[in-house]
Amino acid sequence: MTYFEEIHRQSAIRQKAGEGWSDIDPEFAARLRVQNRFATGLDIARHTARIMRADMAAYDADPAAYTQSLGCWHGFIGQQKMISIKKHFGTTRGRYLYLSGWMVAALRSEFGPLPDQSMHEKTSVPALIAELYTFLRQADARELGMLFRYLDAAREAGDEAAAARAQQAIDSHETHVVPIIADIDAGFGNAEATYLLARKMIEAGACALQIENQVSDEKQCGHQDGKVTVPHEDFLQKIRACRYAFLELGVPDGVIVARTDSLGAGLTKQIAYSREPGDLGDRYNSFLDCEEIAPGQIGNGQVLISRGGKLLEPKRLPSNLYRFRPGTGEDRVVLDCITSLQNGADLLWIETEKPHVEQIAGMVERIRAEVPGAKLVYNNSPSFNWTLNFRQQVYDAWAAEGRDMSDYDRERLMSEHYDASELGREADERIRTFQADAAKRAGIFHHLITLPTYHTAALSTDNLAKRYFGEDGMLGYVRQVQREEIRQGIACVKHQNMAGSDIGDDHKEAFAGEAALKAGGAHNTMNQFAA
């Protein structure tokens, strides 16, 4: 529906209501409707799910059409990210938001900073989804509000061409509301708990839920030690719980991202239930680190399993956890991924210990042999030392080619000494093209950085504090922040406008007419900044 079609619709509503609505302006009512195209979080979830499904199909047709996101821990951060994307690239297409459980734990828990171990309040996750979409919807309202002001000014000046341009811009406005891939950790409990939390997250607007195969009460960050996985059937119950939540709420296109931590997980809490040799439980148990024992060697409290006519004792730790055989990580990852895709998951997440295209591609090729078209979401993690990893990858590749490496010390490649070297430049180029290379070679549909805005907030605050509290004083803020905001066209330089003061003024004028006490008059210091 176009802007003027909405005005006509609102005019009909007012006319039907009669004289009591004579002071209601149909055009302002239309503006409110246009500024708020998503009435509920479920409207957002349905809209963004369709976007993700279309993007997945586009990637299947052309791996160059991969998608990206950055993790955001506050609505304002997500809003500014999408405003920046629209400013620099003209469209939000292919750019999402990521909601990191790590950042929720570290930054949004009432307990204060917590490690990524599912100890934070699970309600804080849907609360952050709702907050992110509140800020994105406000970005829509702000941008459209400025277009409405431009339209009014063009009408007042009698400039029909400018008014037509404004109307076209209003009708073709692209929303800042984009898909969020939201981290539900290991489900925060059993399958019922997962279902209940998934519902809350979807109701808040999430169209994509990322769930991992770790034990809920032993969950660890994917880049920490001590990870404990669960048998496949336990994990599949939670995938089904998420799907039922999507279906119940009328979001059939909802996306489930099944994450496996098996590459770095050497422990399991359970021996899987098996009905017959070769079934899924038996295949899971086949990875256990076991020793064959004779019946006469059975001691007190031992746990035994039988396989192929042999009696085996899984190696059990004092923590009651069982160990997997060393070197089985990739095989377990492949089985996890195939099983998840065959049981309702849409995308995969393989948590790796380093960003290596060929390592990821090797696993994906094995998965695609069973499930063609398998696609990944990949964590371009800040836990990786990208500089050192890629410099060492280049070093090893060149050494294998027989090149003279005497100018390089492999263990000290992080040194600034190598920044301008041929090796350093080649490593940087591989980092630059990593996402495109991995999308083409390793089936990665979506690249994300989990914690970038955690790090940028720390870095920018450190730089400001160093300058402002040091010799630069106020110049430390003006030169490094405000001056750059003005010169780079950062909308937040007009912070009153960004916080909604102009939107509020427009509302006041509609509500009170000439009696409105507006904030945006001639004496507003925000007017010092150019439009």
UniProtKB/TrEMBL annotation:
Could you provide one GO biological process annotation from this protein's UniProt record? carboxylic acid metabolic process
Instruction: For this UniProt record, give its keywords in alphabetical order, as a comma-separated list.
Output: Lyase, Magnesium, Metal-binding
Q: What Gene3D superfamilies is this protein classified in?
A: Phosphoenolpyruvate-binding domains (3.20.20.60)
Q: Where is the active site?
A: 221 (proton acceptor)
This protein's record includes keyword Metal-binding? yes
Pfam annotation, one family: ICL
Q: Where does Mg(2+) bind?
A: 183
Protein name as annotated: Isocitrate lyase
Mind giving the lineage of the organism this protein is from? Bacteria, Pseudomonadati, Pseudomonadota, Alphaproteobacteria, Sphingomonadales
Q: Which organism is it from?
A: Aurantiacibacter spongiae
Per the entry, the cofactor note is: Can also use Mn(2+) ion.
Q: Which reaction does it catalyse?
A: D-threo-isocitrate = glyoxylate + succinate
Which metal ions or organic cofactors does this protein require, according to UniProt? Mg(2+)
The UniProt entry, under CDD domains, shows: ICL_PEPM (cd00377)
One GO MF annotation is:
isocitrate lyase activity
Coiled-coil regions listed: none
Q: Work out whether the entry's keyword set contains Heme.
A: no
